[in-house]
Amino acid sequence: MENHKELKSVAKFISDFSTCMMAVGAQTSRIERNALRIAKAYHLKAEMLFFQKTMVMTLWDSRNEHSYSMVSRIKPMPLNFEINARLSHLSWRIHDEHIPLNRASKLCQRILDRPRVNPWIVLWLVSFANASFCRLFHGDFISMAIVFVATFIGFFFKQQMQKWHWNEFAVFILSAMFASAFGSLGYLCNWGTTPDMALGTSVLYLIPGVPLINGVMDIIDGHIVTGCCRLFNAALLVSCIAIGLSAILFITGLVTI
């Protein structure tokens, strides 16, 4: 009975730890290594299986006499590389310093409760970054200004819609529409000499780079199912961006059937 309680407590901690890492954008093999490291610190063995929205895990004691299995749902969370790095560091601390489970849980919760970067700072930085992309593709300064404002508008509404818990695909379609609507002003008002760059780069901030990279890395590392799920989800998001951009092109008359 005591073994069962211990397995259950450690399994719940590792499950919460792993699903948080998956939600904030960690690579699957990295999550697995960290989870196995924690299990080893408590003299246990772990077997894990990851999917797009769930994780299945079984813990065994050192003699393979008792086991505990659980299925955990991966909660939606914004990408956060700081949490990713801090949780990885925590797994090493648990392994090297033999931190008790109760204290490890508090340290993990403390990492998750850290205040996030002010969304207004993120909004301004993303807008500047996307305007820089426009310049990188040889857009003029007027086009850069258009892209800055377009990104500011689109990303602001994206933040608000995510706060309202709207469907992810609807968020991407509408965000692409808001950004490209302002990005098309270079064509509609004859502003600048590179209106094509302004329109094309106005939606680049929506490109799901992390899922695309993680999907490829997961497949290379042998996590075929998880990698394919991430790539398929990223492909759907890219399709949503294309739908939003195409809708504005038809509405403004820049493209006709």
Report on the structure:
With about 260 residues, the protein is mostly helical. The protein folds into 2 domains: about 1-110, no CATH class; about 120-250, no CATH class. The chain has 11 helices and 3 strands; from the N terminus they run H-H-E-E-E-H-H-H-H-H-H-H-H-H. The chain has helices at about 1-25, 30-40, 80-95, 100-110, 120-135, 140-165, 170-185, 185-190, 195-200, 210-220, 225-250, and strands spanning about 45-50, 55-60, 65-75. The mean pLDDT is about 90. Its main location: membrane. It is a multi-pass membrane protein.
Give a topology summary.
Elements (H helix, E strand, L loop, with lengths): L1 H22 L4 H14 L2 E7 L3 E8 L5 E7 L7 H17 L3 H12 L6 H18 L4 H23 L4 H16 L1 H4 L6 H7 L7 H12 L3 H29 L5
Antiparallel strand pairs: 1-2, 2-3
Helix pairs in contact: 1-2, 2-3, 3-4, 5-6, 5-9, 6-7, 6-9, 7-11, 10-11
Q: Please compute the radius of gyration using only Cα atoms.
A: 22 Å
Alpha-carbon distance between the two ends: 70 Å
Strand order of the largest sheet: 1-2-3
Structural class: mainly alpha
The helix tally amounts to 11
How many domain modules?
Answer: 2
What portion of residues belong to β-strands?
A: 5-15%
Mean pLDDT: 92
Shape: elongated
Provide the succession of SSEs.
HHEEEHHHHHHHHH
Q: Largest beta sheet, briefly?
A: 3 strands, antiparallel
Low-pLDDT sequence parts: none
- Secondary structure tally: strands: 3
Helicity level = 55-70%
